[in-house]
Amino acid sequence: MSGFSPSLKFKVVTAAVHGWTNLVCRVDDAEMARIPAEGPLIIISNHINFLEAPVLYTRLRPRPTTGFAKIESWEKSLLAWLFNTWGIIPIRRGEADMKALRRGVAALKEGYFLAVAPEGTRSYDGCLGKAHAGAVTLALLSGAPLLPIAHYGAENFSANISRLRRTDFNIRVGRPFMLDAGEARVNREVRQQMTAEIMYQLAALMPAEYRGEYADMTQATQDYLRFSI
Question: What CATH number does the domain containing 84 carry?
Answer without folding.
Answer: 3.40.1130
